[in-house]
Each structure stands twice: as structure tokens, then as C-alpha cells.
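Hello,

Our lab assistant flagged a job as stuck in the queue for most of the afternoon. It eventually completed. Since we weren't sure the result was trustworthy after the delay, we are filing this so someone can double-check. Below is the sequence as submitted and the structure that was eventually returned. Let us know if re-running is recommended.
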Amino acid sequence: MRVETLGATETDTAPAVAVVGAIHGDEPCGAKAIDRFLSSGPADRIQRPVKLIVANERALEAGTRYVERDLNRLFPGDPDGDTHEERLAHDLWTEIEDCVTLGFHATVSFSEPFGTLANPTPLKAQIMTALPIEHAADFSAVVTGRSVNLPQFMNVEAGYQGSEQAAENAYECLLAYLRTMDALPGTVDATPTTHYEVTRTVEKDPDKKYQFIAENFERVPPGTVYATTDSGETLTANNDFWPVLMSATGHETLLGYQSIQTGDICNIVGDAI
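-- returned structure --
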């Protein structure tokens, strides 16, 4: 794990600010955004303490999701764990436990950046609306052990995995995040961000091939076929839902998630603080 600390570290300003890339090694957009910020961005204008962290360097170098176990299933980790990622999850959590943190991922399911979070707070809503994103998926009800389950942690899914556009999106989100946290000078224009409450995990049979025929973040009405298999089966919506992270190829046993659209995120959790 590589940690770059910028700003006046003796300043007693809470909460501290952190950015994390490369939780998954095959999603380099966050690490690229951090390196770009350090090499050619306004790093010399940082005005409060910031930690920029490249998490799973081993997996990033290998170009694989993880080395032994998926880091984003292991938080808060185990310092005495048997695997690299168990120990790394503990080290990363120790590094950011006092920070408001934005992490970066990439997908095979959606080209535009969007937010993910759990247990929304007014501050999280404020940050989501400050980022150049239209959607924020709330995983409070369906996941545990992930970065979004950590207090004060949010993620951006920056775009297609491995694409230069994802790296560009991550960089723009990094700048907006640092500005809204008063770590960089300048203001950001708040934009409406729709909140989606993720309600259900949709599993796949690993022995079948799937085709996803709906669109992420677009309503699927009841009775609509939203996926098919190579054996002629159809997956049909029982109720209205909005797909999140749905893809035929993104995961061996997971097609994605169903959600309900609940409205502007600031209206869901109240006024920002």
C-alpha cells in the first residue's frame, strides 16, 4: 500500500480527507487519477491534510482483481490474517478510520461515473451532489464487509474497466471531491443526484451464459424480460426496479442488483452539514 500525505499534517482539522484507488488491481482508474494529481495536478495547492492511497499495489502490478482474496469483501480486515488482502484490509482501515474517504472502482456495466455508498448521511449526500455524477446506489441493505460499509466511506464507479475515460472521470471526481472538502481552493456546482436503494442481489448460474437486455439505472416495468440465458430461460421483473451494476460478463455468479429509485439524495437524508 502506498500512502502520499499532502498538506499541513500538524493542522488540527477534522475530519481528515482521504482518496483510495486500486482496491481492485484490475481497476486502475483511481490509481491513475492519484498519480496524475501528484505529477501534474494542483497538488501544491492543497490547503488541509489529505491522504492519497494506492491500496492493492501487488494486484495492480499484476493486473488482477486481487492476489489471494477480494479486498473489497474483507473490511475491516485482520492484522493476523492468512492472506495478503486480509492484512491489507486492516492496514487500509487503520489508515483511513478517522477520514472522510472517496474510493474509486470501475465496471463492465456502465460507461458513466456513478456513486455507491451505504448508510447515507447528510455529508455523504453533500459529497455525492458535488461530484459530476447523476446516480448514487445505496447498498446498505445488501452488502457487508465492503469499503462502503466503513463509516465515512463512499465510492465512485468511474466508468468502463481499463478505459482512459474511466481514468479521466476519476480525476474529475477527485478534483470535485477535494474542492467540496475544502482541501483545494475553488467551488463546485452542486448537481441533482438520484438515490437508488438497492434491494436485491440477482445471482447467475455459473454454468449458463446470460444476456442482459435492459439498461442500468433505467426503469424495468413489471412483466418485462430483463435477461435471458443460452438455455432459453428468461428473467422477468416481478415489480418495478432499476438495475444497478447489471452485466452478463462482470461476475461469474452475480448478474447484478435490483433497486428502487427514491428521489434526490439530499431529500432522502436531509440537509447537508
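-- support follow-up --
The delay was a queue issue, not a problem with the job. The result is valid. The two ends are 32 Å apart (CA to CA). The CA atoms of residues 246 and 255 lie 5 Å apart.
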